[in-house]
């Protein structure tokens, strides 16, 4: 059996080299592309593996790349790398068909875990995923205020913005956030957003 293949798309040469070293060391086969366009030019060869793409790139960005892949019928799983605080873009990417996102700067193990999950058989079959049903049940346990904070968190709003919208202090928002994270058992904001998108709540 061959190595799992990761198609890395990033306009930063240093980032491409760094990712290639990390992934090859972890046992993946790697192909590098300096742009979304470069990857699309090789579309016919994209028959296995998964795509790891930056979301903010000149020309064809990560969102456009996902759209082009899906429009041409390519179903390779896509993991998106976003800048810190790019939650709205990450939500949009997942709605367009990305299976996961990770925020830069990220821990190596977080990236490797996301890629292994993306490459695991059946990772796209989320509708009947018991973890999605479990998450939906946990959402039902949120208080009205916790749900208001949740709804704004998963659109990328900051604690200050949520506080202004709900007329409460950012500190109070943080308290509600901690409570809802505990109730939903989300490990991080990234995890919360991912689950919310898969459950159709973002």
Automatic annotation (TrEMBL):
<protein>
    <submittedName>
        <fullName>Response regulator FixJ</fullName>
    </submittedName>
</protein>
<dbReference type="InterPro" id="IPR036388">
    <property type="entry name" value="WH-like_DNA-bd_sf"/>
</dbReference>
<dbReference type="GO" id="GO:0000160">
    <property type="term" value="P:phosphorelay signal transduction system"/>
</dbReference>
<dbReference type="InterPro" id="IPR001789">
    <property type="entry name" value="Sig_transdc_resp-reg_receiver"/>
</dbReference>
<dbReference type="InterPro" id="IPR011006">
    <property type="entry name" value="CheY-like_superfamily"/>
</dbReference>
<dbReference type="Pfam" id="PF00072">
    <property type="entry name" value="Response_reg"/>
</dbReference>
<dbReference type="InterPro" id="IPR016032">
    <property type="entry name" value="Sig_transdc_resp-reg_C-effctor"/>
</dbReference>
<dbReference type="Pfam" id="PF00196">
    <property type="entry name" value="GerE"/>
</dbReference>
<keyword id="KW-0805">Transcription regulation</keyword>
<feature type="domain" description="Response regulatory">
    <location>
        <begin position="5"/>
        <end position="119"/>
    </location>
</feature>
<keyword id="KW-0902">Two-component regulatory system</keyword>
<feature type="modified residue" description="4-aspartylphosphate">
    <location>
        <position position="54"/>
    </location>
</feature>
<keyword id="KW-0597">Phosphoprotein</keyword>
<dbReference type="GO" id="GO:0003677">
    <property type="term" value="F:DNA binding"/>
</dbReference>
<dbReference type="InterPro" id="IPR000792">
    <property type="entry name" value="Tscrpt_reg_LuxR_C"/>
</dbReference>
<dbReference type="GO" id="GO:0006355">
    <property type="term" value="P:regulation of DNA-templated transcription"/>
</dbReference>
<keyword id="KW-0238">DNA-binding</keyword>
<keyword id="KW-0804">Transcription</keyword>
<feature type="domain" description="HTH luxR-type">
    <location>
        <begin position="135"/>
        <end position="200"/>
    </location>
</feature>
């Amino acid at each position: 059996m061959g190595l799992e293949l990761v198609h890395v798309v990033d306009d930063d040469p240093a980032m491409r080299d760094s990712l290639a070293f990390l992934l090859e060391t972890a046992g993946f086969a790697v192909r590098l592309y300096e742009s979304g366009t470069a990857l699309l030019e090789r579309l016919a060869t994209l028959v296995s593996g998964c795509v790891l793409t930056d979301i903010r790139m000149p020309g064809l960005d990560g969102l456009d790349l996902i759209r082009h892949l899906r429009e041409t019928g390519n179903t390779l799983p896509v993991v998106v790398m976003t800048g810190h605080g790019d939650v709205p873009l990450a939500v949009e990417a997942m709605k367009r068909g990305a299976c996961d996102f990770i925020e830069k700067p990220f821990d190596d193990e977080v990236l490797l875990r996301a890629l292994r999950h993306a490459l695991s058989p059946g990772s796209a079959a989320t509708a009947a995923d018991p973890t999605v049903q479990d998450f939906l049940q946990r959402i039902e346990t949120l208080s009205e205020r916790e749900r208001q904070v949740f709804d704004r968190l998963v659109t990328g709003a900051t604690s200050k913005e949520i506080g202004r919208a709900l007329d409460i202090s950012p500190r109070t928002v943080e308290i509600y956030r901690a409570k809802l994270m505990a109730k939903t058992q989300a490990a991080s904001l990234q995890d919360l957003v991912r689950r919310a998108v898969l459950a159709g709540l973002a």
